[in-house]
Write a structure and sequence with these properties.
The chain is mainly β. It folds into two domains: about 325 residues, TolB, C-terminal domain (Neuraminidase, 6 Propeller), CATH 2.120.10; about 70 residues, Sandwich (Immunoglobulin-like), CATH 2.60.40.3710. Helix content is about 5%, strand content about 50%. The protein has a four-stranded mixed β-sheet, with no helix packed on it. Strands 10-9-8-35 form a four-stranded antiparallel β-sheet, with no helix packed on it. β17 and β18 form a beta hairpin. The N terminus is likely disordered.
Length: about 425
C-alpha cells in the first residue's frame, strides 16, 4: 500500500501543471425540447429528416452571430464555433435550403467538474454539477490511472490496467452509463490520451520495449507512429495541430494534423502550456540559469507564422514559471510559479504578457499547487493542492472564481480536476 501511495504522489507532482460550481446542467424549464451542447459545440443538424442537400446549397444563420466552420459528415451537418460559445445562453440556427426551412435552438451547457476521488488508494472519476451531490462515473474497483475528455463533453476516456499487464483506454458517457473499451493495448501501457473530435482522431503514448506516439482514427487505423516518449498531449481546439513534450529530445513538438509535419522547440518538463481558444497560439517555456538560479523564458508559438516569439524572461524577478496558460484577458497569463522563498512548492499566479507585473492567486507555501484548468469562459479555474510538509497528506480540489476572487474547496482526498463542458 505504501508503494501505491508513493506512485500516486509522484503522478500528482509530475502533473503540476471555479467559487463553488453554482450552475445547473438541466435544460431551461421553459423549453424542455431544446438541445444541449458544449461551449465548444458542435451544433449538429440531421439532414435525413428533411433531405437537406449538399452544404454548398444551404444557407445557415446563427443568432447571436458567431464565426463557425461547417463540416458535412455522412448524414449530419456539424457546425463548429471558432471560439467557445457563451455558457448558459441559447443559440438559434436557421437553415434555408431550396424550399426547405428549419429552425433549431441550442442551450450551452453549464460545465461540471470532474476529478479523481480517493486517488492514492481507490481512484475513481466523480462529477460535481452545481449544488447537486457529486456522483461517481466509473466503477473500476479503484483502477483508474488517468483520464481525458472529448471537446463536445459527451465522453470521458480513462486508462485502467488489463489482465495482460498492460493498460487500456475505456470510454464512459457524461452520465456514467454507457461504457466501452476504445483502445486495447495488450501487454503495452497506453497513457496520455488526447482526443480530436473534429478530425475524429486519437493520440496517445504507447510504452513498451520502444516507446511510441500513436495517432489513429476512430476506426482504430494507425495514421502515424513516432518513436518517442511523449507527454502532455493536447490537440488545438480547431483540431489542426497536436502539441506534446518529447521527453527524448526535451522539446515541445507541434504536429500538423493535415500533412503530419513536425516543428520542434527546446523546452522542458512541465513547461508546455496550453492552446489559445482560437487555436492561433500555444504557450511554452524554456528554463535558463541567471546568476546560478533557475529562471524561465516564456514563448508563444504563433500558427500564422509557424514559429515562436519570445514574450518575456523572469531573470529580474528570479522566479520559475510552469505550465503557462491564457487567461481570457489578452494582457494576462496564468501559470504555476516558484520563487526563492517558496521552497519546493509551486503557487498559481497571474502575470502580465510582457512579464512586467505579477498577481498571486495562491500564497499557501506549505501547499504544492498543480493541475490547474480554466472553464471555457475563463470565469473559474479548478486546481489541486497537497501539503508537502505533512506525512500522508491527501490532495484536495479547489476552485478559484476570477470574478469574485474567492477560492472554495470542492473535494477532499481528490485530484486531477478537469471541466466537463
Amino acid at each position: 500500500m505504501r508503494k501505491i501511495r508513493l506512485i500516486y504522489l509522484l503522478i500528482l507532482l509530475l502533473f503540476s501543471n471555479v467559487a463553488c460550481v453554482n450552475r445547473t446542467e438541466s435544460r431551461p424549464a421553459e423549453n424542455p425540447s431544446i438541445q444541449m451542447i458544449s461551449a465548444w459545440g458542435p451544433f449538429v443538424i440531421e439532414k435525413n429528416s428533411e433531405n437537406l442537400p449538399n452544404i454548398d446549397h444551404i444557407q445557415v444563420k446563427i443568432s447571436p452571430e458567431i464565426e463557425f466552420e461547417i463540416i458535412d459528415k455522412d448524414h449530419d451537418l456539424f457546425l463548429y464555433p471558432e471560439k467557445p460559445l457563451k455558457i448558459g445562453k441559447i443559440y438559434t440556427i436557421d437553415l434555408t435550403a431550396e424550399k426547405t426551412q428549419r429552425r433549431e435552438n441550442f442551450f450551452i451547457r453549464i460545465p461540471c467538474l470532474l476529478y479523481i476521488r480517493d486517488p492514492l488508494t481507490h481512484p475513481e472519476i466523480w462529477k460535481k454539477c452545481e449544488d447537486h451531490p457529486a456522483i461517481r462515473l466509473t466503477n473500476t474497483e479503484g483502477k483508474v490511472l488517468d483520464y481525458s475528455i472529448s471537446q463536445d463533453g459527451e465522453g470521458i476516456f480513462y486508462s485502467i490496467p488489463n489482465a495482460e499487464g498492460g493498460v487500456d483506454y475505456w470510454r464512459v458517457d457524461r452520465d456514467g452509463i454507457a461504457v466501452e473499451k476504445i483502445i486495447g493495448c495488450g501487454s503495452s501501457i497506453c497513457r496520455n490520451l488526447a482526443i480530436n473530435a473534429r478530425m475524429e482522431m486519437f493520440s496517445y503514448t504507447k510504452f513498451g520495449n520502444n516507446h511510441q506516439l500513436i495517432v489513429e482514427n476512430k476506426q482504430g487505423e494507425q495514421l502515424l507512429n513516432i518513436p518517442c516518449e511523449a507527454s502532455s498531449l493536447e490537440f488545438s481546439p480547431d483540431g489542426n495541430y497536436l502539441a506534446f513534450f518529447n521527453q527524448n529530445e526535451s522539446t515541445i513538438d507541434i504536429l500538423n494534423g493535415i500533412d503530419f509535419q513536425i516543428r520542434s522547440y527546446l523546452s522542458g518538463m512541465e513547461l508546455k502550456g496550453t492552446w489559445s481558444h482560437d487555436s492561433k497560439g500555444l504557450l511554452f517555456g524554456l528554463q535558463e540559469f541567471w546568476g546560478g538560479f533557475p529562471t524561465t523564458v516564456i514563448y508563444e508559438w504563433q500558427a500564422s507564422e509557424g514559429s515562436p516569439i519570445e514574450l518575456f524572461r523572469t531573470r529580474e524577478a528570479e522566479i520559475e514559471i510552469y505550465t503557462p496558460q491564457y487567461s481570457g484577458d489578452e494582457d494576462w497569463l496564468l501559470a504555476g510559479a516558484r520563487n526563492r522563498n517558496s521552497g519546493f512548492t509551486k503557487q498559481i499566479w497571474l502575470m502580465k504578457r510582457d512579464g512586467s507585473h505579477y498577481r498571486k492567486i495562491t500564497q499557501d507555501y506549505p501547499f504544492h499547487h498543480s493541475f490547474f484548468h480554466w472553464n471555457s469562459d475563463y470565469s473559474q479555474m479548478a486546481f489541486q493542492r497537497i501539503r508537502l510538509d505533512v506525512t500522508d497528506a491527501n490532495p484536495e480540489v479547489l476552485i478559484w472564481d476570477s470574478i469574485d476572487n474567492k477560492i472554495i474547496q470542492i473535494a477532499q482526498n481528490a485530484s486531477m480536476p478537469i471541466w466537463l463542458p
